[in-house]
Design a protein that fits this description.
Elements (H helix, E strand, L loop, with lengths): L6 E3 L11 E3 H17 L1 H5 L7 H20 L2 H10 L3 E4 L3 E6 L1 H4 L13 E12 L2 E6 L1 H4 L6 H19 L2 H6 L2 H11 L6 H9 L8 H5 L8 H7 L6
Antiparallel strand pairs: 1-2, 3-4, 4-5, 5-6
Helix pairs in contact: 1-3, 7-9
């Protein structure tokens, strides 16, 4: 990946075709989003987890989410190393960017029993328009800024509201009969149902801070009750 001052173009592909180019920095950011979105999509991971235990499946999903966060937030040199390690290959055409990478290498899955797809594939739509007399490629507006919703975070919110409903419906006798570990688990889940509605809305629309994950939210033992303090500690912009 190059700096923003460099371009990818088709100038050497076909002498009879119009010269089109796209800033390499835009390609880099689009690739980061596309690979991260693939890693966060549970359907893409299902086949790889078919023979795994529940604990192993959870570890793979968390590894994929952590890798997605790293790809989105790392400096260019680090992201380039990650892409090289996963054997990322990219072809830019007039209509789209097509990419492939090795999911086994990306998630460090080398067990012979793993059912790994030979290649993970993704596409990024492009169109082109003229700037003065110069035709240029550009990322398709509907695809360039599309937020990627973290389904693990959404699932955690759903479990939190369910846990709150269970606790509110539970009488004193039932609470006393419940195992202490189970009760504490429900209480820890239920506290997340009191998040600021702004935070909940951002999670549901995929516009939460990239650094926020289901694991980091679940492990936060000192989550404050005040909504402004929640926004501050979770790196949300102040409303």
């Amino acid at each position: 990946m190059a700096k923003d001052t460099y371009y990818a173009s088709n100038m050497n592909d076909d002498a009879g075709a119009p010269a089109l180019r796209l800033p390499a920095g835009e390609i880099e950011q689009a690739l980061r989003r596309a690979v991260a979105k693939w890693l966060r999509t549970h359907k893409n991971l299902q086949k790889m987890m078919a023979s795994k235990s529940a604990t192993e499946k959870t570890a793979i999903v968390e590894r994929a989410n952590d890798l997605a966060i790293e790809i989105e937030n790392s400096p260019t040199s680090v992201a380039c190393g990650i892409f090289e390690a996963m054997s990322l290959r990219v072809i830019v055409s007039i209509a789209q960017i097509r990419g492939t990478f090795d999911p086994g290498k990306a998630l460090d899955l080398t067990d012979e029993s793993d059912q790994l797809p030979p290649k993970a594939k993704f596409e990024i739509a492009l169109d082109h328009q003229s700037y003065g007399h110069e035709p240029r490629l550009r990322l398709h507006p509907s695809k360039a800024c599309e937020p990627a919703r973290d389904n693990r975070l959404v699932e955690l919110l759903g479990r939190a509201y369910h846990a709150r409903a269970v606790l509110l419906a539970m009488g004193d006798a039932a609470a006393c009969e419940l195992k202490t570990t189970r009760l504490r688990h429900l209480q820890r889940l239920a506290r997340l149902s009191y998040l600021d509605p702004t935070i909940v809305r951002c999670i549901l629309t995929g516009t939460q801070p990239k650094i926020l994950s289901s694991r980091s939210l679940w492990r936060m033992a000192d989550l404050p009750l005040r909504w402004d303090e929640q926004r501050q500690i979770l790196n949300f912009k102040q409303a």
